[in-house]
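Example 9 (inverse folding). The structure is encoded as follows.
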């Protein structure tokens, strides 16, 4: 890490065990993603409600070259829903769990191991609108093989369903619906 770790406690007494725990979790993040340049952690105790303490909020800001800081923060209600007795240790663990998940996602994205939504391009095909029923929210497109595929208004990801007309070119991914093959993830081909 290029910049020393910053740990701050606001409206809560700092505890050696908590600071040690945070530093250990930061070390784990560095092993997971070695391009981290800075890390700032703020532990904030918000006001008390009806004499009971609201769980602390742990906010983590991670500096990574070539992108905006990765910021992890959760609302106290999240901890209260997840744990019967949320405390500082659980707040730290939860914040770092979220940070780890986001760093793994970023690492996979940079290595080209992205989620299926990004790999649809290889399964994408080109078709043309055969018929559109805007009042009934569906249409049919003609595939390059000449067959008809049903598509619903909600499957149009890019483009205006209401502006579609016969002959418009669409990219789509073929899926299986209740009654057979359907066009999903439909995108209107941009005019060249």
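The amino acid assigned to each position is listed next.
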């Amino acid at each position: 890490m290029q910049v020393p770790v910053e740990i701050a406690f606001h409206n809560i007494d700092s505890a050696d065990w908590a600071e040690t725990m945070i530093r250990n979790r930061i070390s784990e993040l560095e092993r997971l993603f070695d391009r981290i340049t800075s890390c700032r952690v703020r532990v904030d105790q918000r006001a008390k409600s009806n004499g009971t303490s609201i769980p602390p909020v742990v906010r983590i800001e991670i500096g990574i070259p070539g992108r905006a800081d990765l910021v992890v923060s959760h609302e106290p209600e999240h901890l209260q829903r997840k744990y019967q007795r949320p405390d500082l240790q659980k707040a730290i663990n939860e914040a770092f769990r979220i940070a780890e998940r986001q760093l793994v996602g970023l690492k996979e994205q940079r290595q080209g191991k992205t989620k299926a939504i990004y790999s649809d391009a290889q399964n994408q095909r080109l078709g043309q609108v055969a018929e559109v029923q805007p009042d009934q929210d569906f249409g049919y497109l003609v595939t390059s093989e000449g067959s008809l595929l049903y598509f619903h208004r909600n499957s149009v990801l890019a483009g205006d369903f209401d502006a579609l007309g016969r002959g418009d070119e669409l990219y789509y991914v073929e899926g299986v619906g209740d009654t057979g093959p359907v066009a999903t993830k439909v995108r209107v081909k941009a005019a060249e």
